[in-house]
Specification:
Strand content: 15-25%
Number of helices: 12
Number of strands: 11
Strand order of the largest sheet: 2-3-10-5-8-11
Distance between the termini: 31 Å
Structural class: alpha+beta
């Protein structure tokens, strides 16, 4: 797909539509005052979608509202390999600048944006998240992490992905399925390596283990309306001040993390189908929200729609 024959005033909308149909629904905003041209080539290799984008400077955003309306596909993991130009990805409070030759991981189930400040060329790989076989919390830890050819398995993964992007169209279906399996295996290895590096020997080893225990504690106590930085610090025999300091490098505050995980749990439950679906207020209370008005405001701020609208969108998509 290319914008070459599209009128100038329709190029941005055309490009947004092309990316949304091929990958996941996104919004594309070209840099103001600059011309915009784009070319997209995409192939499927087994369960892996491989796309090459070449376009002028633009900002690509996947908002909470778009995620709420995206009922076509199961959760995906994305990997961007930068061929030319730069990319700056923001997700979960992290900001990653990707230079030529590097790659970055992201999760399509949570909001993110990618800023391309100049003309660029990139390879994007999308595959079902479940196929990596790694815990969701580990994916959250590594989303927005840049990997270069000089880092660990990046020296193996990057050349492999780059070669695959250029030859994806030439493989038969059986070979493509096997190669897709190799992509999943290598990416799960990368996630494991990046996660392990956080607990490698060094001055922060003990802190990293503590951060992981705190995250697990939060996930196990989301339904407790009393869950707070104070109760978490007390349970781990540390001060509240030290708890906040532990999370300075996590890209999120403890209070925001609690709310984010509660909202994620509510969104999952509200999106489930069943004969006896619980009320919105019952779901909110089950996951620790005691004030319905506060829950509704917080949910809309993250997902772009009210809890009831979210449920209706999921219900319509399942029918």
């Amino acid at each position: 797909m290319t914008t070459a024959a599209v009128p100038d005033d329709e190029k941005a909308a055309f490009w947004s539509g092309a990316m949304s149909r091929t990958l996941v629904p996104v919004e594309v905003v070209p840099r103001a005052g600059q011309p915009f041209e784009g070319h997209l080539a995409s192939h499927r290799l087994g369960y892996v979608r491989i796309s090459t984008l070449e376009a002028d400077a633009a900002r690509v955003s996947r908002t909470a509202a778009l995620i709420a309306r995206d009922l076509r596909t199961e959760p995906q993991v994305g990997v961007g390999v930068q061929v030319s130009g730069r990319a700056v990805l923001e997700q979960d409070g992290r900001r990653a600048e990707v230079s030529v030759g590097g790659l970055v991981l992201y999760d399509t189930t949570r909001p993110y944006c990618i800023d391309y400040p100049e003309r660029f060329r990139t390879h994007l790989f999308h595959l079902p998240r479940r196929l990596l076989g790694v815990p969701e919390r580990e994916l959250r830890q590594v989303a927005g992490t840049v990997v270069t050819p000089a880092e660990g398995c990046g020296s193996v993964l990057l050349p492999f992905l780059s070669t695959l992007a250029g030859s994806a169209h030439s493989y038969s279906a059986p070979v493509g399925d096997r190669l897709a399996g190799s992509v999943a295996d290598l990416l799960s290895t990368l996630v494991a390596q990046l996660t392990a590096s956080r607990t490698a020997e060094g001055p922060r080893t003990q802190d990293d283990h503590l951060v992981r225990r705190v995250r697990e504690h939060i996930d196990h106590h989301l339904g407790d309306s009393e869950l707070s930085p104070e109760t978490i610090a007390r349970a781990h025999h540390i001060s509240v001040r030290y708890l906040h300091r532990l999370f300075e490098n996590e890209g999120v505050t403890v209070g925001r993390l609690i709310q984010q995980r509660r909202l994620d749990a509510c969104a999952r439950e509200l999106g489930r189908r069943g004969r006896t679906a619980p009320t919105v207020s019952a779901v909110a209370q089950r996951w620790g929200f005691v004030n319905p008005a506060h829950f509704s405001r917080a949910f809309r701020a993250v997902y772009g729609v009210s809890p009831s609208e979210w449920r209706a969108l999921r219900t319509e998509g399942a029918e």
